[in-house]
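#onboarding

Welcome to the new folks! Below is a worked example of what a typical request in this channel looks like: someone posts a single protein sequence, and someone else replies with the predicted structure as tokens. Don't worry about understanding the tokens yet, we'll cover that in week two.

Example request:
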Amino acid sequence: MKSLAYALLALALFSSSVLAADPMPVFGKNAVILFQGDSITDGGRGRGDDPNHILGHSYPFLISAKYGALLPERNLQFINRGISGNKVQDLATRWQKDALDLNPTLLSILVGINNRAQFRTPESGFTLEDFEKTYDKLLSDIRVARPDVKIVLCDPFVFAMGKEKETYEQDRVLVEKMQEAVARLAVKYHTPVAHFQKALDAACKRAPLEHWVWDGIHPTYSGQQILADEWEWAVRAFWLEGK
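Example response:
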């Protein structure tokens, strides 16, 4: 009986310490968390004020739902400004309205997959170097406007499925070069990187690719959870564990 009592006491102490721990300190009081990107972030979001649809059905929704429920007293504001089909230069065109004017305390960016066709077509006049320069300018502008903003960069990704099979070998190389550009920018601006490609590659060891991604680019609901988990891990590892 005494050993059982000790076990129950230890469990109670452990549970109380877990409950007392802050699940996401980087989300401070009245924080504005902005997700920016293309269709993978967009997630079919509504363009009105209907709270049932404003965040879409992508990883921003999963993250926002979790921490909106865990931390209601902090009055967190989650905003999704992903737009389907956007390239990095499209983000630049709307950066003032959809980033700077929103004054985020934390900004998350996933972009690049829609640029790869330009890299395959020299006559487009937009190169991998242009991608990195444009991305760099976005980050510089937000840091000038709000020096204390926290930034999370996310890796673009691609898989050999459906029509993506036709150009997959070339596209995977291009996507890896964009991931390298993201890594360089992360070092320059001292930000974490959510490695979505690696996270989905690892998930494919547990279930077939079709369980996670349905067309080579867009995740299923299960795949979106993988992105949300990787995003949380990257944030926690960078800010909460002293990196």
